[in-house]
Design brief:
Layout: H1 3-20, H2 25-32, H3 36-43, H4 50-59, H5 65-69, H6 77-82
Helix pairs in contact: 2-3, 2-4
C-alpha cells in the first residue's frame, strides 16, 4: 500500500469516527483547536503533522486507538539480561551485512 493510500484510509477512518459521533467538521475543529479546513484536509488524506492527528484523536475521544495501532513493546527480556537490567537508549551501529535483505525475501 502506498503512503498516499494509507493517508487516504486514515482520513476515511477519522471521517467515519467523526460521523459515528455525529460531529461536524467545524465542531471537531473547534474541539481540537484547529481550522475546519485542516480537518477536511486530514479526512481527504492530505499529509499533516503528528500533533494535528493527536488533537483530532483526543477531540474524538479516540486516543486509546494509539495503543492498538502501536502498542508499547517494552524492553525485551533478552536485552534486559544482556544490558544488566537497564533499558536500551540508542541503536548500535550495524556491521557490514547486518540489516540487508536477502534476495527473494
Amino acid at each position: 500500500m502506498s503512503d498516499r493510500a494509507i493517508l487516504r484510509e486514515l482520513g476515511e477512518r477519522l471521517r467515519r469516527r467523526r460521523l459515528q459521533r455525529n460531529v461536524t467538521q467545524a465542531e471537531l475543529a473547534r474541539r481540537a483547536g484547529l481550522n475546519r479546513t485542516t480537518v477536511s484536509q486530514l479526512e481527504c488524506g492530505s499529509p499533516s503533522g503528528t500533533l494535528t492527528l493527536v488533537r483530532v484523536l483526543r477531540a474524538l475521544d479516540a486516543l486509546e486507538t494509539l495503543d492498538a495501532f502501536l502498542p508499547d513493546p517494552g524492553p525485551s527480556p533478552l536485552q534486559l539480561a544482556r544490558l544488566g537490567g537497564r533499558e536500551r537508549k540508542r541503536a548500535s551501529r550495524r556491521t557490514s551485512g547486518e540489516g540487508k535483505e536477502l534476495p527473494g525475501w
